[in-house]
Write a structure and sequence with these properties.
Length: 258
């Protein structure tokens, strides 16, 4: 039997993503009240004249919002903000970062228009899986109330696609398919390469399996880590040192709590 001690009645899709990213971390957070250092989240701020990854991300996001607004002055306002707020160096390096962010934002908008971004609508989803209610909003093209409508989840983030984005697309599409009881495809728009998903078979069974693991993960640290699994797949089986290093960074801090 699954022990669902302290299981929250409602969770969001992003909460499930965080769980699958690292069930051990969720266990220490939720059950033990411990928040261990995640070395993978470190930002490289060693170079004093190089903008941090976080600043660059925020800049791209603001540029993306500016381009989507169709306001001819919006991009210039973002440019002026970052030239004056001191987060970027007052030199050609800072100017180049702003130019690059604006170009990348425009490229993302072009990709979004290619997946009918202007037709996206937010829809509430609410499904009960093994007593846990998954409740959230999803961005879709198509009309869920029409049985033969072509439904597509559309996500985006102004970065290269990461393992978290794959999980988010999969779970959002999965939950949407169960909620609307019809086939749903998905796309996640990113820099360089987009993610696509379609043909999800046995969506209800997949979701049941995920929630079963989630409930178990509330009571003990499961030796599962979706992001680590993807990282290990990129390393050849003969390179045991790299595999061991990846494991130590992502999973080792949680072993003591198993």
């Amino acid at each position: 039997a699954i022990e669902a001690v302290n299981a929250p009645l409602k969770i969001t899709i992003s909460a499930l993503v965080r769980f699958l990213e690292n069930p051990g971390r969720m266990f220490t957070n939720h059950h033990l009240g411990l928040y261990l250092h995640d070395y993978a989240l470190d930002l490289d701020d060693d170079e004093p004249f190089d903008s941090s990854k976080l600043v660059e991300y925020k800049l791209r996001q603001q540029m993306l919002d500016a381009v989507l607004s169709n306001d001819p002055k919006a991009c210039e306002l973002v440019r002026q903000e970052y030239q004056l707020n001191g987060q970027l160096p007052d030199s050609h390096v800072g100017a180049r970062s702003i130019d690059t962010s604006q170009d990348e934002a425009q490229a993302l908008v072009d990709e979004l228009h290619g997946v009918n971004y202007d037709q996206i609508q937010k829809h509430r989803v609410c499904v009960n899986v093994l007593g846990i209610i998954i409740e959230d909003e999803v961005a879709l093209t198509g009309e869920p109330s029409l049985q033969n409508s072509s439904l597509k989840v559309v996500l985006s983030r102004p970065t290269k696609a990461k393992p978290k984005d794959r999980l988010t697309l999969w779970l959002t599409t999965l939950v949407s398919q169960v909620a609307f009881d019809q086939a749903v495809t998905g796309v996640s728009v990113h820099l360089e390469k987009n993610l696509h998903i379609e043909g999800l078979d046995d969506a209800q069974a997949q979701l049941n399996s995920i929630i079963s693991l989630y409930l178990i993960g509330l009571t003990k640290a499961l030796p599962l880590d979706a992001e680590l699994g993807l990282e290990l797949l990129k390393v050849g089986p003969e390179d045991q040192e790299k595999r061991r290093s990846a494991w130590q960074k992502k999973w080792y801090p949680y072993v003591k709590f198993m």
